[in-house]
Amino acid sequence: MDVKTLLLQQWASCLDQEDWFPPLEKVLEDVTFEQAIWKPVDSMNSIWELVCHLLFYEKRLLMRFLGETGNEPQAEDNKSTFRLPAETLQNWKETKQEYVYVHRELEKILAKSEEEDLYRPIPGERSLVLELKSLAMHDAYHIGQIVFLTKMQGALAGKRSF
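and the corresponding structure tokens:
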């Protein structure tokens, strides 16, 4: 199996193809606004904060890849990448939609890339192949946290296909 095919499988498993963990799109489909902002303790991140964090890094990579660095998200530090927009139901829906959109745009870029494109450096980043590999692992880690938070709230039970 070539690196591109492997990365496409990893990328899909983070969003919409079930593998060893449930994909984020499926996990989030029934998460209510109240569940999205809930925290078991103040020192933990909410589901929505975690999605904002994932979106920050994926959107930054997309903008850098497209050469649109003026549109990339900005943060003072990693902690501020978890920051929420105004806490409204509409903003929660928009955050989910934007995450799915950005994730799929990166998937399209990967799918269209030739072998040499995978290893070309992206301004401010490493190569596409290294960044997407790292982001897939990063996503999987935080998807696990999101799954845990949904289970703590009594959601997601029985949604696995195995």
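(Above: one complete record from the training split.) The mean pLDDT is 93.
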